[in-house]
Specification:
2 domains, mainly alpha, globular, Arc Repressor Mutant, subunit A, Four Helix Bundle (Hemerythrin (Met), subunit A), 3-stranded antiparallel sheet
C-alpha cells in the first residue's frame, strides 16, 4: 500500500520533471505541508526522502532546494550510465532473452515521432531500464534505479527542444537490439557509447557548457538504415 510520504514524493518528482517547480527553488516543511495538506512531520519525512533521492539538495542544514544540474553533473550522470549499461549489453549478448518490452518502448517512440512529438523521455528511459532489468539482478536494478531520476531530469531538459532527434534514437535502439541478438556485445557497447555520448554533449551544451565533438557525430545506425532503404 502506498503511504502518504510515498505519494507526496512521487507527485513532487513529477512536478520537478514537468518543470512546474523550478531548479533551485526553496522547499520548506511549511511549503510542503501546505501544498499537500499534510502534517509537518509527514512533510519533513517527504523532504528527507526527496533529498535521499537527489530531487532536493540541502547543505549545512539549510533549507532544501530543488536540484539544479549543470554541464559537469550531466557528464558524470551519463558517464555512469555508459559504464553500467555497456557491461549489461555485453552480458545480454551472451544470452537469449525476450526483448519484447524494449521493442514496445521503441515502437512507442516511433509512434510519438510520427505524430510530431519530440518529448519521448518516458519510453526512452523504459527502453534502457528494461535492458538492465533483463539480467534478472535485483541489486543491479536497484543500482540503476538510483540514477533513474537524475537521468530523467537530464532528458527532460533536452528532449522536447528538437535537439535530440527521435529518428536517430529509434534507429539506434533498433540497432542495439539487433547487435545483442546477433551476440555482438562489443558492437552494442560501441554503439551505446555513440548513443549516450551524443545526448550527453548536447545536454551539456544546452545547460551552458560547451558541447564536445560527440554531439555532432552522425548516427552510424541511421546511415546504415538510409543506405538499406
Amino acid at each position: 500500500m502506498t503511504s502518504v510520504v510515498d505519494a507526496v514524493v512521487e507527485d513532487f518528482k513529477s512536478l520537478v520533471l514537468a518543470r512546474e517547480v523550478a531548479p533551485d527553488a526553496s522547499v520548506t516543511e511549511t511549503d510542503m505541508a501546505e501544498r499537500y495538506d499534510i502534517a509537518r512531520a509527514t512533510a519533513k519525512a517527504a523532504i528527507e526522502r526527496l533529498v535521499y533521492d537527489k530531487v532536493l539538495s540541502r547543505r549545512n542544514h539549510k533549507t532544501a532546494q530543488v536540484v539544479s544540474l549543470g554541464p559537469e553533473d550531466v557528464r558524470d550522470i551519463y558517464n555512469a550510465r555508459l559504464y553500467l549499461e555497456s557491461e549489461v549489453l555485453r552480458r545480454l549478448a551472451k544470452t537469449e532473452r525476450d526483448w519484447s518490452e524494449s521493442r514496445q518502448a521503441n515502437d512507442e517512440i516511433r509512434s510519438l515521432w510520427s505524430e510530431g512529438v519530440w518529448d519521448i523521455t518516458l519510453p526512452d528511459m523504459r527502453f534502457h531500464t528494461s535492458l538492465v532489468a533483463s539480467l534478472d539482478s535485483p541489486r543491479l536494478v536497484s543500482i540503476y534505479a538510483s540514477l533513474a531520476f537524475e537521468v530523467r531530469l537530464c532528458m527532460s531538459q533536452l528532449q522536447g527542444t528538437q535537439r535530440l532527434s527521435p529518428q536517430i534514437i529509434v534507429a539506434e535502439h533498433d540497432k542495439l537490439l539487433d547487435l545483442i541478438e546477433q551476440g555482438d556485445g562489443e558492437g552494442a557497447a560501441t554503439l551505446l557509447d555513440e548513443h549516450l555520448s551524443r545526448a550527453r554533449e548536447l545536454l551539456a551544451g544546452s545547460l551552458g557548457g560547451v558541447s564536445g565533438p560527440e554531439a555532432f557525430v552522425p548516427s552510424t545506425a541511421l546511415a546504415e538504415l538510409t543506405q538499406l532503404s
